[in-house]
Amino acid sequence: xxxxxxxxxxxxxxxxxxxxxxxxxxxxxxxxxxxxxxxxxxxxxxxxxxxxxxxxxxxxxxxxxxxxxxxxxxxxxxxxxxxxxxxxxxxxxxxxxxxxxxxxxxxxxxxxxxxxxxxxxxxxxxxxxxxxxxxxxxxxxxxxxxxxxxxxxxxxxxxxxxxxxxxxxxxxxxxxxxxxxxxxxxxxxxxxxxxxxxxxxxxxxxxxxxxxxxxxxxxxxxxxxxxxxxxxxxxxxxxxxxxxxxxxxxxxxxxxxxxxxxxxxxxx
Length: 268
Ligand code: NDP
What we know:
Layout: E1 14-15, H1 21-34, E2 38-40, H2 48-58, E3 66-71, H3 78-92, E4 97-102, H4 112-124, E5 128-134, H5 138-147, E6 154-158, H6 166-175, E7 178-182, H7 194-203, H8 207-218, E8 221-222, H9 229-234, H10 245-252
Parallel strand pairs: 1-2, 2-3, 3-4, 4-5, 5-6, 6-7, 7-8
Helix pairs in contact: 1-2, 2-3, 3-4, 7-8
Bound molecules: NADPH dihydro-nicotinamide-adenine-dinucleotide phosphate.
């Protein structure tokens, strides 16, 4: 997919939250071997070193890779973010990043406008190819629009059939912000939904594949995580079938405010 600054991101990538650092290199290697080229990590995941080890060992040309990491809440603010960025880049063993995100708005800290200025600088210096945010609410985005020049390329939010974020996605679309879905499988919590399992039976695909296909047809960027090699491969095998209008309507009807992670109002 093309972001609002022309940079291209694979629509389907690989997330590594909750993969221990010591296991991350092997897991990311399995993902790269399966064909993923986009990896989503964060300073807070504690596994940027493992990601970097796998990227280096892969021998893949840098321009074929798309690497995302995120600045943690405690490092928000202009100077602290610039320092945190250098630390992340060092752990990843890279000289530039493809996408850098503010991990959470963290309303009690109230520093994301300064943090965003640091990301604007990193983008202007070419140290990040794209700048974005994560878990930003509509009001956070509006405030950012009012106080800065650069429109985020991406807002990475919890999004899956149980939490479809229709209004926020519409706001993104109006402003040219790509929606990226975290916990796209709701960490497994939507894989038993009857609407999903019925489509899986009919198409001969797994429930996870049906949900990932739903994301792709919605137009969101999606970054499923798996530490299981067979699932890592399976989650990439979603380009040989299509959901019908009826399937999409059946999944639309399962929206139910199901959050598997924290609410951005409360997370600081
Ligand atoms: P996901 O929705 O991707 O679900 C991961 C879980 O589903 C794991 O338990 C995995 O098991 C299981 N799973 C994966 N594939 C299959 C399959 N084909 N069939 C059945 N089960 C499957 O959850 P995450 O929370 O990990 O979200 C994905 C990524 O999003 C994260 O890794 C991270 O990069 C990002 N994220 C960002 C956040 C943010 O605040 N910006 C917050 C949370 C996540 P197993 O590993 O055992 O195979």
